[in-house]
Write a structure and sequence with these properties.
- By secondary structure, the protein is mainly alpha-helical.
- The longest helix is centred in the first third of the chain and has 38 residues, at 11-48.
- It has 20 helices and no strands.
């Protein structure tokens, strides 16, 4: 049996192991999720919906991409139930396995030309599996860090899970960039796009190895010693904390909208409509990803110095401002302007996203915390991650890309309201 942390273990080693488990798990999560997003922007439409017009391909691809966001709350309830009843560690192992297996199997799907409509049907099924597993992943990874954090360092520990996003994005985009540079277009469309899905298994194995070496969080152990867990955590959550669920859901919408408009939507628009080479846009997004990571790091230190609530409110307000210039930045047709636009969006996302790991747990008591933060985070993902890109695509089709930033402005307003109405748990 692999060793796990004990109460007598060196605190530095325990904290390092916990932070690494939180970081690696969410890096795997975002790698898995983003390779699908990148494939959706580049190849899913022609391979799985070839009979449709380009505009219809885009909408169908975004709908397929969005299925996972509707699966996430289902996974949040399922994994949250066990996370609040049997513990964070075991639940996190199961969620990572579910997500990893679903992602790995995408690599072996037949195209529409081979299997007809069975191909997109299987794609949707695996996409649902991805989202279901992810529904229990982020919340548990955040709790793993925050519930082990020393007093006064909750936000800095809490950014471990958010930092998995730029790390996973870096691995995913970097691999697609390398494949694009090393393969012909025909080879990339034939089999090259499948390689990142196969490679995901290596990251999953690493994540599992690390997570099997950690113990349960002190906060959960203390809660279980004080009283038995609720029989139905979801029922207790909705009965006692409905306002916190609504506020938490609204509070995460901006970060999802910023991320998926600045990555998946922007990549598709820049390559299809502006005609920029795929590898060039991927390289620009990699540069903007570094700015994203900086924003998360800034938010962690700033949140501990002030409060996560204040930093998120600033981020939400800046999201509204970024939205006013986002469409113009895409429409400019300039690579430097594109880089600045995406960098600004992702830096602001860092300010919105980094504090969430400490802010959401403060809204719920320990006995329903896994369910609460997972449900709020993933309900917000439906609006910000699935509906926002669809809304941007619809606005672009109706009135041009200049209008797409209004989606971000609206998301910023909703998040600001959610943050300000949330109960003060800090």
């Amino acid at each position: 049996m692999m060793p796990v942390q004990t109460a007598s273990a060196n605190p530095f080693v325990v904290h390092a192991r916990v932070l690494l488990a939180s970081l690696v798990g969410t890096a795997v999560e975002f790698y898995d999720f983003y390779i699908f997003g990148t494939a959706a922007a580049l190849v899913i439409g022609p391979l799985f919906f070839p009979a449709e017009s380009p505009a219809a391909q885009t909408l169908l691809t975004l709908m397929t991409f969005g299925i996972a966001f509707f699966a996430r709350p289902v996974g949040a309830v399922a994994f949250g139930h066990f996370g609040d009843r049997i513990g964070r560690k075991s639940t996190l192992v199961a969620s990572l396995l579910m997500m990893g297996i679903s992602t790995f199997l995408v690599a072996f799907l037949p195209s529409y030309a081979v299997a007809g409509w069975a191909a997109p049907a299987l794609l949707c099924l695996l996409r649902f599996g991805q989202g279901f597993g992810l529904g229990g992943e982020w919340g548990g990874a955040s709790l793993l860090a925050v519930e082990n954090a020393p007093k006064g360092m909750e936000a800095r520990f809490g950014i471990a899970a958010p930092l998995g996003a730029p790390l996973g994005f870096l691995f995913a985009n970097g691999l697609f960039l390398a494949l694009g540079l090393g393969l012909s277009e025909a080879d990339f469309l034939s089999w090259g796009w499948r390689v990142p899905f196969v490679a995901s298994s290596l990251l999953v194995i690493l994540g599992l190895w690390i997570r099997l070496r950690i113990g349960e969080t002190p906060a959960f152990r203390e809660a279980m010693e004080a009283a038995p867990p609720p029989r139905v955590p979801l029922g207790r959550l909705l009965a006692d904390h409905p306002g916190a669920v609504l506020a938490g859901t609204m509070g995460v919408i901006a970060c999802f909208a910023l991320f998926y408009l600045a990555t998946t939507f922007a990549l598709g628009y820049a390559t299809r409509e502006l005609g920029f080479p795929r590898e060039t846009v991927l390289a620009i997004q990699l540069g903007a990803d570094v700015v994203f990571a900086i924003g998360i790091l800034v938010s962690g230190w700033w949140s501990d110095a002030t409060s996560p609530r204040r930093v998120m409110a600033v981020g939400a307000a800046l999201t509204g401002l970024v939205g006013l210039g986002f469409g113009s930045g895409l429409a400019a047709g300039s690579l430097p302007v594109l880089f600045l636009t995406l960098s600004a969006a992702l830096f602001v996302m860092g300010l919105c996203y980094g504090p969430i790991g400490a802010w959401l747990p403060s809204l719920y008591p320990v006995e329903v915390r896994y369910t609460g933060i997972s449900l709020a985070f993933n309900l917000g993902g439906i609006v910000g991650g699935a509906l926002a890109p669809l809304g941007a695509a619809w606005l672009a089709a109706q009135g041009g890309v200049l209008w797409t930033g209004l989606v971000l402005t609206a998301a910023g307003v909703v998040t600001l309201v959610g943050v300000l109405m949330a109960p003060r748990g800090e």
